[in-house]
Amino acid sequence: MLFNSIDFLIFFPAVVLLYLLIPAKLRQIWLLICSYFFYMCWDPRYILLLVLSTVITFISGLLLEKRTDSSVRKVVLAGCLTANLGLLFVFKYLGFSLEIWEAVTGMQLRAPGFVLPVGISFYTFQALGYTIDCYRGRIPAEKNFIHYALFVSFFPQLVAGPIERSGNLISQIHALPEQKRSELLDFDRIRGGFILMAYGMFLKLVIADRIAVLVDTVYGHYYLYGTVGLLMAAAGFGIQIYCDFGGYSIIALGAARILGIRLMENFQAPYLAVSIRDFWRRWHISLSSWFRDYVYIPLGGNRRGRIRKAVNTMITFTLSGLWHGANWTFLVWGAIHGILLVAEDLLRAPVRKLHRALEVRTGTWGFRLCRAAVVTAVVDLAWIFFRAPSIRDACGYILRMFTHADWWILSGDKIYSYGLDAMQLHILAIGLLVLALADLIRVKRGLMPDEWLARQYAPFRVLAVLFLVLFTVVYGQYGPGFDSREFIYFQF
Fold first, then answer.
1. Least packed by Cβ within 10 Å: which of 102, 108, 168, 387?
2. Catalytic residue set
């Protein structure tokens, strides 16, 4: 079931209505039933994997709290990690591993024809984060299986995040029966959740799915296009993946808010970042912080010298790339960001000295926007490896982009040959303007769209929400036959 489908427009109001009507003590059970139903709408068979991961990590948490012997605790943690990562490996990485085995040994082994379970990387990492926190003694083990199962499977963020931390979400799940019906019916909270959902739908349907037409057209036959088309598609994919994934995360935040739960923010205007490190503080925050806390810091972080820090950074980001998919392109994409971060760290002191020598005003908005433009360009270049089907295609794409100049296209109607006509490009431009304003407000004021609108004049607030809803309904890109287009990160 997709957020941008008619099914969800029926499912979610029904969930909320019954959630408000049932006795308070049944709220967690109701949400768990709804979450399992939501997941089973893709493929009922794979609910078994979700339940199995939940059971393993739940029992592991109890054992880790009960046992005091360090060796036993390590065995429990290792067993839990092996079981969960083993399931992830079989369903996501086995085919890729067998391809490597064949390339190295020449022995051909056929992988089972598994379909990748939607969201398996997200709920696996969320459950493992809980287990590791129990091992470290940061949280007590959850004793109620219903509460814990809801933590792993809470449907707004189940299949594409954000990857929640147990310390934040489980405590809110415990508090659900204590919320009075008047609190659940709080107008400001419901309005804020609705605004977030409307804005997320706007990002997905108006921007992401529209610019996807251009991106798919060019990437599908990149060797037929020159510099202009390839640049547009490269920049377009950066926007597409941001609005697609960011849109999902914002819809998830809004849906959870209506149900009385606050999820962590997953994006904070990443294309206004002034460095690669700043970009990763703003992009997919739940995943980048997960790798920081559970991979980078345990490896030693930055505590063991500059060389070890660089090695730890490369390991962390290469694994982050692999998390996204079983393909060399994802590994290279992750490694590129690792190299950029290492280079940025090495050059930080010399660059600061250069700025002081040239008396550069680094605190001005002009400087920050120029830095953001450079960072965005570098990130978009790396996205080519993420989007291309193979490293060879990615390299061919980049080579052609810099060697087949066709700037003359900008002066004629040829610009409309990339899949979007004049009207579609104008609609896209309006959508991008709204996105830019929202991100500038996010950076300048530190406010989400619902928070900023809540402070505005009431008639303006109403008009803004009506614009989001009506513009999405009228100009949303719904696909052939009004089919819903899946979110990009469902495949991870």
1. 108
2. 324
pLDDT per residue, tens digit, the chain (492 aa), is 788 888 899 999 999 999 999 999 999 999 999 999 999 998 888 899 999 999 999 999 999 998 888 889 999 999 999 999 999 998 888 888 888 877 777 777 776 767 788 889 999 999 999 999 999 999 999 999 999 999 999 999 998 879 999 889 999 999 999 888 888 888 899 999 999 999 999 999 999 999 999 999 999 999 999 999 999 999 999 999 999 999 999 999 999 999 999 999 999 999 999 999 999 999 999 999 999 999 999 999 888 888 999 999 999 999 999 999 889 999 999 999 999 999 999 988 888 888 888 888 888 888 889 999 999 999 999 999 999 999 999 999 999 999 998 888 888 778 888 888 889 999 999 999 999 999 999 998 999 999 999 999 999 999 999 999 999 999 888 766 556 667 776 666
Both tokens assigned to 270: 């990443």
Instruction: For tokens 């007590």, name the residue.
Output: 140
